[in-house]
Design goal:
By secondary structure, the chain is an alpha+beta fold. A hairpin with a 4-residue loop joins strand 16 and strand 17. The chain starts with a strand and ends in an 8-residue tail after the last strand.
């Protein structure tokens, strides 16, 4: 029995325009397979192994995406630890280990990134069982990926003496090498790619962290002790967590511990760090094209083409990445698609909305999709899940018209409460308190037309909110 710890932070900026600040790659279905997002598939990969409920570590701004994706796979009841800001993997794992031992238990933790692709899940589960054996003996285990080529984009682990049960002592960690050095590593047979996956007993990790980086442990302990809890989330306070060093678990612990071990994993692993990696793992046609969505091609070879909202066509091209979304299109050479990060940096510097979010935005009550916008108006399609409700709120700068497309709406507007059904509508004047809820058993869908001098999402003053979004 072990406790999975799913690290669901990270940004995935090289996978723009699908990956955005508010919807990073772990919450997307990137490889075209209709079997859940990368986060959901990380949890599904544990099926067949005896384990406790997972602990999920994510960013505060992604909490409702996490909750919705857990709800979709009926795992919403477990605790989600929310970091107020990114502090790398050592603090994240420390929070998980402290939380896992808070009730007096001392489980073995299996630490997994939420955005990895693994083709051979049986091989993955077999490697986990090997790692559990070493973790039971007090070792801090990392998983090393059996290399398939001389890769310069990964760190490497040099295997030392055999430990039995298919494990090795760790001789050294190596940074990302040059091509010549990577070729030497591959030829030697002594090196594995560093995967960023781990397995160890919680108390053993905490003891090593206290010995090697007591500052990180103290900051995490202080943060956890002052965290706020609600139904699903454990909110880590920003003030204390900001004092924690930004450090990877490799630098903080694994490179310095004397009890480290590595287990080889040969399971078709890929960290999906670029669009070229998505092409690598995708299903290809006879021309080696990986196509997703409404796509038509002529004389096209070795391309990745995705159409998510409209028809995409290509003629007489090769070795390209073409990604279409509702509000952006990427065209890049497959050999240079790592440079997408430079586009993202330009978008961020220009404070473009396309850096931050998609037109479809998740909320705890459902989601909204921006259909159209212009000067002094904006149109959204709003979906409210059964039994959910928006906060009691008002706007100082805009009025709203609501038209019900399907389902039933309960509307509070000032001192009046009304029920609306399909094809009925209502008007919310500027400056009037109002609320919207779905009392029915099917999703409520409505069109919202906003008009006013300012239409930003920060023009919301909340008075009551079941999701804890009222600022003190």
């Amino acid at each position: 029995m072990f406790t999975p710890v799913i690290l669901a932070g990270g940004s995935g900026s090289r996978l723009w325009p699908l990956s955005r600040q508010h919807m990073p790659k772990q919450f997307l279905a990137l490889d075209g397979q209709d079997c859940g997002t990368m986060f959901q598939r990380t949890l599904a990969r544990l099926e067949g192994l005896e384990h406790a409920l997972p602990l999920v570590i994510s960013n505060e701004q992604h909490r409702f995406v996490v909750a919705e994706q857990l709800r979709q796979i009926q795992q919403l009841s477990q605790r989600v630890i929310l970091e107020p800001l990114a502090r790398n993997t050592a603090p994240a794992i420390a929070l998980a280990a402290l939380e896992a031992t808070r009730s007096g238990d001392d489980p073995i933790l299996l630490v997994l990134a939420a955005d990895h692709y693994i083709a051979d899940e049986e091989a993955f589960r077999a490697a986990v069982q090997v790692a559990a054996h070493h973790a039971n003996e007090g070792r801090l285990v990392t998983f090393g990926i059996t290399p398939t080529h001389a890769e310069t984009g990964f760190g490497y682990i040099q295997c030392g003496a055999a430990l039995g049960a298919e494990g090795y002592a760790i001789a050294a960690f190596r940074e990302k090498p040059s091509l010549a050095v990577a070729q030497q590593y591959l030829a030697s047979g002594e090196y594995l790619w560093n995967s960023g996956m781990f397995m160890f007993r919680a108390s053993r990790f905490l003891a090593e962290l206290e010995r090697l980086r007591p500052d990180i442990l103290e900051a995490c302990r202080m943060s956890l002790n002052s965290a706020q809890e609600d139904s699903y989330f454990l909110h880590i306070p920003a003030e204390s967590f900001a004092l924690c060093a930004d450090e990877s678990v490799d630098y903080a612990v694994m490179e310095h511990t004397a009890c480290g071990a590595v287990v080889a994993l040969n399971a078709g692993w890929n960290d999906l760090g670029s669009w070229a990696a998505i092409w690598d793992v995708g299903q290809k046609d006879a021309q080696q094209n990986c196509l997703q969505g409404d796509v038509m091609t002529v004389d096209t070879r070795n391309c990745l083409v995705q159409g998510h909202h409209r028809l995409v066509t290509t003629v007489g091209v090769e070795n390209l990445v073409v990604i279409e979304t509702k509000d952006a299109v990427l065209v890049a050479s497959k050999d240079n698609c790592q440079q997408v990060k430079a586009i993202v940096q330009q978008l961020q510097a220009a404070q473009r909305e396309e850096f931050i979010t998609h037109p479809l935005v998740n909320r705890p009550w459902g989601h909204y999709d921006t259909i159209d916008k212009g000067e002094r108006y904006q149109v959204k399609r709003i979906t409210v899940q059964p039994g959910e409700s928006l906060s009691l709120q008002l706007h100082y700068h805009r009025a709203e018209h609501w038209i019900v497309v399907s389902g039933t709406a309960r509307v509070i507007c000032g001192d009046k409460e009304i029920i609306l059904s399909e094809n009925q509508s209502t008007y919310i004047p500027l400056g009037v308190q109002h609320a919207l809820s779905n009392p029915g058993k099917m999703p409520l869908e409505l069109i919202e037309v906003q008009s006013g001098a300012y239409l930003g999402e920060d023009d919301i003053v909340r008075f009551e909110d079941r999701y804890g979004r009222i600022k003190p």
